Amino acid sequence: MRAILSIREALARRPTIVLWLIAGYYLLAIVLRVLRSDALESDEAEQLIQSQFLLMGYGRQPPFYNWLQYGVIQLIGPSVLALSLVKNLLLFLTCVFYGLAARLVLKDMRLVAIATLGVVAMPVVSVVAQRDLTHAVATLFSVAVFTYAFLLAIQRPNLGTYLFAGVAVGIGLISKYNFVLVPLAAVLAVLAERDLRNRVLDWRLGAAVAVAALICLPHLFWVLGNLNEATSGTIAAMREDASGDAVNDRITGLLAMLGALAGGGLPLLGFFLIAFRTALPKAWRATSPWTRIIGRTIMICLVLVALVALGFGASNISEKWLSPFLLLVPLYLCLKSEAAGADTTASVERFFFPVSVLALGGIMYLAAGVVIGPMFGNYAKENWPSTPFIQEVIERHGGDMPAYVIATDPYLAGSARTQISDAKVIFTGFKQVQTITEEELRGGGLVVWPLDGDATQMPAYLGPFLQQYGIKPEVLVPSTLAVPYRYSWRDDRVGFGYAWVPAAASGR
């Protein structure tokens, strides 16, 4: 209770300490992620596999997040810490740049603090991202940087601010493709303001576009050469639950979008109602150039998303796809409140504590769920014993490390990366070209796969795959191993298969 009172008093005196509290929260998130499990979520496994290569494209996602992950892993090695560090640092920087953007257009520092906290108040940030997001996190960061650069260019139009906005757009475009809607909507929103229209009709905008294009150019060349690989996955995800009825699927997609809007927007509105109570409903009629610009930007983005969904026949629009656009909502609500002259005296404390419950509750729930779920026979991805399996296989082989590992499962491939950091890890589902050198073949390898039911033999499709690398599958001796789930209370086990590849098994 004394700690809560101290925080309340500190927030009342210096609302700017919010950023330090957010930094502490993300530090705690990193620690809890490292402690709760060394097993991997889907995006984490993908990042560990792809971080072996520095490429211009990695499939259906642009490469910005992969490049950051590659750099951190080069510095500290492949690990859960490296994964959590990149994600939470980007989320913290999202709050930093968002706060800087809020400072440009808000006079009341309490509202600046609330806008910054509004980022953490989004469920997709405080809950979903802490479970398993990567490229979506990079998009949130890019939107925050662009918002700051965009508002800065409008307020202080010079070549430097326009170029900064161009850099922000370039980073956003190589973070996630749907980011392109944000700068497009922002430009259209400013064009509607007669007094600010000249900011768009300015030669320096051409320089900003050129900088953005220069940043995107290497990836653009890759996309043009790999168009199907870059787009098919996203379109398939949008049509995941499609029935084949074009009209019905489009209606379903729009309804899903409305549901995602409610899921992402209503919690934010709830937190703001707690902070401002009766003042917020009265603020809807208040207006200013900034409320109009940010409000139009949000609306144009959502309309464009709806049009894209209709055009592609999307039957599924998730909350995380809308998160880059909903990120502008806290700033919009703060601008509305300031335009209405709302009393902000106690607003920071009222906003901070409910948001803290959501944010801390989210990471504590994830940490506790890994331990509590197995008590009832519920096993999540972070309970999957891929890491203990890799460790035991190495021990059974006398501690000798393979020069390469071939895995049919992304979680096994990711765990192999963390446990055998010097080995090249080949994942059969990664469509990019993967090679094994003559030297690596001479060092011997390890093939691993999860068992399917009662099967004890190597999957049939692995034979042709191994032959691509000059490995003779007929000389391999498959073995099996059953490993307990992480935190299993009933000794429930998962079966894996493996085979060591001696140098002699290579036909080269």
Topology (SSEs and partners):
Blueprint: H1 2-13, H2 18-36, H3 42-50, H4 64-76, H5 80-105, H6 109-120, H7 123-132, H8 135-155, H9 159-173, H10 181-191, H11 203-225, H12 227-238, H13 246-276, H14 279-282, H15 289-312, H16 319-326, H17 329-339, H18 347-372, H19 386-396, E1 404-407, H20 410-419, E2 424-427, H21 438-442, E3 445-450, H22 462-467, E4 479-484, E5 493-501
Helix pairs in contact: 2-5, 2-18, 3-20, 4-5, 5-6, 5-8, 6-17, 6-18, 7-18, 8-9, 8-16, 9-11, 10-15, 11-12, 13-16, 13-17, 13-18, 15-17, 19-20
Please describe what this structure looks like.
This protein is mainly α. 63% of the residues lie in helices and 6% in strands. It is built from 22 helices and 5 strands. It has helices at 2-13, 18-36, 42-50, 64-76, 80-105, 109-120, 123-132, 135-155, 159-173, 181-191, 203-225, 227-238, 246-276, 279-282, 289-312, 319-326, 329-339, 347-372, 386-396, 410-419, 438-442, 462-467, and strands spanning 404-407, 424-427, 445-450, 479-484, 493-501. Strands 2-1-3-5-4 form a 5-stranded mixed sheet. α2 (18-36) packs antiparallel against α5 (80-105), α4 crosses α5 and α6 (109-120) packs parallel to α18. It is globular. The chain starts with a helix and ends in a 7-residue tail after the last strand. The mean pLDDT is 90.
Which key phrases capture this entry?
single chain; 508 residues; mainly alpha; five-stranded mixed sheet
Radius of gyration: 25 Å
Number of alpha- plus pi-helical segments: 22
Average pLDDT metric: 90
Helix/strand order: HHHHHHHHHHHHHHHHHHHEHEHEHEE
The secondary-structure class comes to mainly alpha
Shape: globular
End-to-end span in angstroms? 70 Å
